[in-house]
Amino acid sequence: MNKIGAWLLSLRGPLIAIVIGLLAGSIAIVVAGGSIAETYTEMWKGAFGSFYFFTSTLSRATPLILVAMGAAVAFRSGFFNLGAEGQMAFGGLSAALIGLHVPGPGWFVCIVAMLGGIVAGGLWSAMAGYFDVRFRVNLLITTMLLNYIASLFAGYLVTYPFKDKTGAGAMAQTQMLEHAVWLPKLFKGMTVHAGFIIAIAAVVILYIYLAKSVKGYEARMLGGNPLFAVYGGVRRTSLMLTTMFASGGLAGLAGAAEVLGSQYRYIDGSFASADYAWTGIMAALLANGNPIGSAVGAFFLAALQTGGMGVELNTDVPLEIGSVIQAVLILFITVKFSWRFMRRKKGAVVDGSAV
Amino acid sequence: MLLEMERITKSYGSVIANKGIDFNLKAGEVHAVVGENGAGKTTLMRILYGMEQATSGTVKLNGRDMRFADPKDAIRSGIGMVHQHFMLFPDFTVAENIVIGREPGAVRFDRKTAVAQVEALTNTYGIRVDPRAKVGDCPLGVQQRVEILKVLHQGAEIIILDEPTGVLTPLEVGELLEAIKKLAGMGKSFILITHKLNEVMSVADRITVLRDGEVTGTLNASDTTVEELSRLMVGRELAPSTKKPANPKANVLELRGVSLAGRGPKSLLSDIHLTVREGEIVGVAGISGNGQSELIQSIAGLMKPDAGTISLLGKDVTGGSARALRDAGLAHIPEDRYIWGANKAATVAETGIMGHQNRLGRYGMLRGKGMKTLVSDWVKRFAIKAGSLDNKTQNLSGGNLQKLIVARELAHKTPFLIAAEPTRGVDIGAMETIHEELLKRRAEGGAILLVSSELSEILSLSDRIVVMYEGSIAGELRVEEASEDKLSLLMAGGGMRHE
């Protein structure tokens, strides 16, 4: 009972953030000359209004959840992985190339392609971890800057050596995958695919890992107080490298699932323009890296985006209304982190003194 | 009567910190408030100083009812407080720190007048400080004088000192007690919160003892004894120590020529030779900051020495990781429970099982039940007030957290144990339990390296004592030939090298 209460209390922050985000959105709607009630109704309809819209939201949530899980596992262990964009790009590209060039039955190639995506994203991320261990370069900086290298290199590969030359257009993209390799759709005619099931499985696995496993315990202690963990015999280096591998691997899997389940090829810049990586990271930060909370957050942010499209179609209010709400949420996260930082500095004195 | 606090009650939810406490203070009196951790001393003082509001009860100053909304209010009425952790700006000068909040000068801060004011204060009260020195460069004893002068500069008539001697060297403690006596003679009144009964006996006029939020006695210092006070504090007689003569056997820990360079010109550790044998407690005495921390961390695998070898049970473990050391047979009660010993955001159970997690795992999963059984067992044995094991570690009081850490490290049952400040901030009852447990481990053949800044602890537990001074061992004594005086002299760098 107590536990449930504490858990609900931990949801309070994100909920307040969302309410204030919606209020700020209302102001933007008024400024844009729309009706608040009508706009939010359309947004709701666009996200959940019919089975089709609902499954579109789930489909959009799929990569967000996977990226959020990747960010969450690193975040909870005390590391920042801001490199989801690059890891996703490499994951997606690797999946596409494996899907195109590895022989074998479709289901087999599909699985290998997903594993390939995990390995590609994971290694790219673990490399940043290695730089931290070996050269003491800040993870925040390496993971973020490696995004540019990964995205541009992937872009180069699909612009020159692996470019699809069969089509008439000059798009920088790989060839289309064979139908047999695709991740199956969950419902006929709907966009949501088996990647969603994988994402949910990732949430469950991550939850169990963090809450119940020995390694997950060590990871959380390392995230809470690294000196305490090391003092207690936690192997920081190996835990960090595996965590960074898992974190990048999940982002890579997000890219792979997106390629195998909805785009069927790697298209240069398509992940970046959909802003999957940063939205997913945001979902994780919104929920403090709690796996279930992060998944709910990812789902909510996906609904904002699909709902925003409904708003654009049916009212005079532009699609960007969703971005306004999202921007307010980001502001909230920033405030939360700075506030906690300041409080931690103050708190140091209070904690040391006896009652 | 200068100050009267009547029937003060303070409750936090269901927890009652103060239950109808009566306390009074005469002008020119030193009135000590003693009690175990969690007895309610600090809460009572926070109410007086305006940091907390009492649930019920009255505070009278010179017969007038007062209610202080915040410390500013209290200061205006002539009440000043020196906190356990100094509230000073290390980068500012002594004078700047003292006049803070009431700086002379209309627009520009007039530093010359500030220095003059501080010099006037030091002359009036005979407390010596250099107004132009940077506080960060002053020893802790001087910083404390700065805190007291700050309170005097604010015009305090009543001065609350919260655990004032915790960080001071024996010499500095003596100077502080002298200063208190002198100021009391000039009409200032002191409230001294402490758990060190010897100091209380030497300086206080009256003593109020608190236990579990209630007053168990207000006594004249001349009519009471340390034994009576501790009985009032704990509520029972303390058992006499059960230490039997040591019968040390094979070497467990061996340090040969361990050195650590450090960043500055002075080396942190130089050429340390040290052995700890089976069934023996070796005490490391010294004023904090003379290399004890570095010694502990070098042994525990948290720092790598630059030279020398460390072997544990005959195995060379120099430069090994903390994990490797633990695997080789080390457990470690860290000197700072918040920096090394706990994760404040984790639950009590989670902080409790650190180092035991692999033993508690099955197929890589933590056994929740095993975890709970283990930790609840310690909670019972050490009387840890934890509430639920799912509580956050940061909600434990310092003493209870310390007990949890001690229990955790003893439970490793390793051949070698580092006990660094094992009883820092814990109450007398818990201190007794911890000392008994350490002696029990010794009787079972455990080798213990005890590092403590409390000479009485070192003297009562150790078989051999080494004194550290500026990163090297200034002397080694058998406990029979050691005394507080001899140790103090060595700690202050006063020769007598034991070859």
Indicate the topology.
The complex is a heterodimer of chains A (355) and B (499).
Chain A: H1 2-31, H2 36-48, H3 51-76, H4 84-101, H5 106-135, H6 139-159, H7 195-212, H8 214-224, H9 226-231, H10 236-263, H11 270-274, H12 276-286, H13 291-314, H14 321-352
Chain B: E1 3-12, E2 15-25, E3 30-35, H1 41-48, E4 56-61, E5 64-66, H2 71-76, E6 79-82, H3 94-98, H4 111-125, H5 140-153, E7 158-162, H6 170-185, E8 189-194, H7 197-203, E9 206-211, E10 214-220, H8 226-234, E11 251-260, E12 269-277, E13 280-285, H9 292-300, E14 307-312, E15 315-316, H10 322-328, E16 330-333, H11 348-352, E17 361-362, E18 365-366, H12 368-381, H13 398-410, E19 416-420, H14 428-443, E20 447-451, H15 455-461, E21 464-469, E22 472-478, H16 484-491
Parallel strand pairs in B: 3-8, 3-9, 6-7, 7-8, 13-20, 13-21, 16-19, 19-20
Antiparallel strand pairs in B: 1-2, 1-4, 4-5, 9-10, 11-12, 11-14, 14-15, 17-18, 21-22
Helix pairs in contact in B: 13-14
Task: Explain how this protein is built.
The complex is a heterodimer of chains A (355) and B (499). Chain A has 14 helices and no strands. Chain A is an all-alpha fold and 355 residues long. The longest helix of chain A is centred in the C-terminal third of the chain and has 32 residues, at 321-352. Chain A is globular. Chain A has a domain at 63-298. Chain B is of the alpha/beta class. Chain B has two domains: 3-234, P-loop containing nucleotide triphosphate hydrolases (Rossmann fold, 3-Layer(aba) Sandwich), CATH 3.40.50; 251-491, Rossmann fold (3-Layer(aba) Sandwich), CATH 3.40.50. In chain B, the strands form five sheets. In chain B, strands 6-7-8-3-9-10 form a six-stranded mixed beta sheet, sandwiched between helices. Chain B has a six-stranded mixed beta sheet with strand order 16-19-20-13-21-22, with helices on both faces. Chain B is globular, with a radius of gyration of 24 Å. The model of chain B has no long low-confidence stretch (mean pLDDT 88). The A-B interface holds A 2-3, 6, 208, 212-215, 217-218, 220-221, 224-225, 227-235, 349, 351-355 and B 17, 37-38, 40, 42-43, 83-85, 162-163, 300, 302, 321-323, 326-327, 332, 334, 338-346, 350-351, 353-355, 357-358, 360-361, 364-366, 368, 388, 390, 394, 397-399, 425.
